[in-house]
Amino acid sequence: MSTKQLVAASMVTSADKFSQPLEARRILIIEDEVDIAELIALHLRDRYEHVELCHDGKLALALAKSADWDLIVLDLRLPSMEGLEICRQLRAGENYVPILMLTSKSSELDHVLGLEMGADDYVTKPFSVLELTARIKAMLRRMSVPKVTNETTPDKLSHRGLEVNIAKRQVLVNNQGVELTAKEFELLCFFLRQPGEVFSRAQLLDQVWGYGHQGYEHTVNSHINRLRAKIESDPTQPKILVTVWGVGYKLND
Ligand code: CA
User: Fold this and answer.
1) CATH 3.50.50.60 correct for 3-148
2) In the list 100, 116, 120, 133, which could disulfide-bond 222, CB 3.0-4.6 Å?
3) How far is the CA of 249 from the centre of ligand 1 (A)?
């Protein structure tokens, strides 16, 4: 089925979905292939209030910086400025909006670079729109403030000078605020909930990144390194997130 036929087919389905109220979310889709961008937008507009499209890299960077987005879908290959550069510049400007990268199937390097440049997740082209929307839904759910807290899900976690307020997504290291990307925040909370327990890279990928990331264990290393740079007093001699040689990582208890 061609993309145009897919668009036509999904218009029929979306016409039947009047029942659910839209979530007040702002999503920016940066993708130069207009058919694909519109197909994604069509599906997201069924669920979210504000979905905007941009087909050019430089314009997209300005647009990404100009508003408070809840999530950005970012294509890797774009005219005038590559997706990775957009991602890099946003992160360099301490903009930690969740980014879902769209990568091409041909290059494995794309995945790795995409995650190492500070993207939070990726989907490989050609993708199913249902999978993409499921990923977006999961990313937004993880970002949202939990409405109910109880003993099993405390809203504050602390450990050795580290204080994490989950509801406010705030991290303090020795009373100094630090900015983490969505994925770094999840990774840190994951360890804080299980002090002393050792996790392999494969286990971390499975439990923090979710399904479909097998084979990208080395992206765990780069996230751990970035996290260490933000929370350890000497990232070359980590005292909080330590390496267990030959096994993986643990939070020092
Ligand atoms: Ca493209």
Assistant:
1) no
2) 116
3) 36
pLDDT tens, position by position, 26-58: 999 999 999 999 999 999 999 999 999 999 999
What is the pLDDT, as a whole number, of residue 50?
96
Cα 2–chain centre separation = 29
Distance (angstroms) between ligand 1 centre and the Cα of 50 equals 22
Rounded average pLDDT over 166-178? 91
Residue extents of the structural domains in the chain: 3-148, 156-251
What are 150-158's contacts with CB under 8 Å, separation 24+? 157/189, 157/192, 157/193, 158/192
Query: Phi and psi dihedrals of 87, rounded to 5?
Result: -60, -45
Q: Kindly report the CATH number that applies to the domain delimited by 156-251.
A: 1.10.10.10
Distance of alpha carbon 80 from alpha carbon 91, whole angstroms:
19
Per-chain residues with Cβ under 5 A from ion ligand 1: 32, 75, 77
With vertex at residue 99, the alpha carbon angle to CA 74 and CA 122, rounded to the nearest 5 degrees, is 75
CB 142 within 8 A of CB 183: no
CA dist list (Å): 218 to 62, 115, 148, 161, 209: 31, 10, 35, 28, 13
Name the one residue in this structure whose structure tokens are 């946003």: 90
Backbone angles phi, psi at 194, to 5 degrees: -135, 60
